[in-house]
Design goal:
alpha/beta; Rossmann fold; Dihydrodipicolinate Reductase, domain 2; 2 domains; six-stranded mixed sheet; 9 helices; globular
């Protein structure tokens, strides 16, 4: 017996990927209800070879649904998730709206799947950059206890949606063709051939000097690993890459761990692939990770500035494991519990 599934924000970058993941992983969908704004209502999406008309998202959209996958922005989630709960529909929310609520599990299935059973109607999908980070941190933390993490991200423009991807493309074309200055609408500065230490692209900076994205990574990592004892700091940067986030991660541990031991631990971690052979110039690349489910790690080396430290390079597809895939994996765990 299949489940009735709703996808909120079905026309967006993540919503589009959710449909692909549901189909590719043969999720038992009895009824699919694609939901979006009135602008998209009536248009068709294709799922398993069949055209299905998009419905306008309303307060009554969740009747007879078992699970709703939300990815239409925090404001939409805050407005419509309560209506889904009234219809006894379990929500897997890909926005930041409920992530830090005490009674909402924040889940990466390979890391803390046990939290799913504690949900009260909402399960939150973490930030895309957090997901790939905790996949690598968990086995190391369990083995040698992490004291401190310093992470710098190199985030693809697809994290800001289809319009951001189009802006990078058009601005790049404009510069290469020596046209007059491109009028941008998404990013505060030129993104083509540039890097922007500001995510999100508007209203990003908090009183402490960090951006909202940086504080999300800090808070979410501690919640997922269920440990406030270690310290973590982050700098998040947008780069002119269409797909896949990369991260430079420095870890200081309480106990010594060698590079070989770290490689062995990570090689055995679920959802992780180690690509680490500098002699052959083998390390994770955004161009290679795009479209793949695993999170890739390489450039594993000792930090010579501290007694117990490692440096790592992590790459993952932000639209897949960083969003759509993780949400569907949560839905699969809910299915298992049924």
């Amino acid at each position: 017996m299949g489940l009735n599934i709703g996808v909120v924000g079905v026309t967006g970058a993540v919503g589009t990927e959710m449909l692909k993941v549901l189909e590719r992983r043969n999720f038992p969908v009895e009824l699919l209800r694609p939901l979006a704004s009135c602008r998209s209502a009536g248009k068709d999406i294709v799922f398993r070879g069949k055209k299905i008309p998009i419905q306008e998202l309303t307060e009554n959209s969740f009747q007879r649904l078992d699970i709703a996958l939300f990815s239409a922005g925090g404001d939409i989630s805050r407005k419509f998730v309560p209506h889904a709960l009234k219809s006894d529909c379990v929500v897997v929310d890909n926005t930041s709206a409920f992530r830090m609520d005490d009674d909402v599990p924040l889940v990466v299935p390979e890391v803390n799947a046990g939290m799913i059973s504690k949900h009260k109607g909402i399960i939150a999908n973490p930030n895309c950059s957090t997901i790939q980070l905790v996949l690598i941190l968990k086995p190391l933390h369990e083995a040698v206890k992490i004291k401190r993490v310093v992470v710098s991200t190199y985030q693809a423009v697809s994290g800001a949606g289809f319009k951001a991807m189009e802006e990078l493309k058009r601005e790049t074309e404009s510069l290469l063709q020596n046209k007059s200055e491109y009028v941008r609408n998404i990013f505060p500065h030129q993104i083509a051939f540039n890097v922007l230490p500001q995510i999100p692209q508007s209203n990003a900076f908090l009183q402490n000097g960090y951006t909202d994205e940086e504080m999300k990574m800090i808070r979410e990592t501690k919640k997922i690993l269920n440990d406030n004892s270690f310290r973590i700091t982050a700098t998040t940067v947008r780069v002119p890459v269409f797909r896949c986030h990369s991260e430079s991660v420095n870890i200081e541990t309480q106990e010594k761990i060698t590079v070989d031991e770290a490689r062995a631990l990570l090689s055995g971690a679920e959802g992780v692939t180690v690509l680490d052979d500098p002699s052959k110039q083998l390390y994770p690349l955004a161009t290679e990770a795009a479209g793949k489910d695993d999170t890739f790690v390489g450039r594993i080396r000792e930090d010579t500035s501290v007694d117990h430290g490692l440096n790592l390079w992590i790459v993952s597809d932000n639209l897949l494991k960083g969003a759509a895939l993780n949400a569907v994996q949560i839905a699969e765990k809910l299915l298992d519990k049924r």
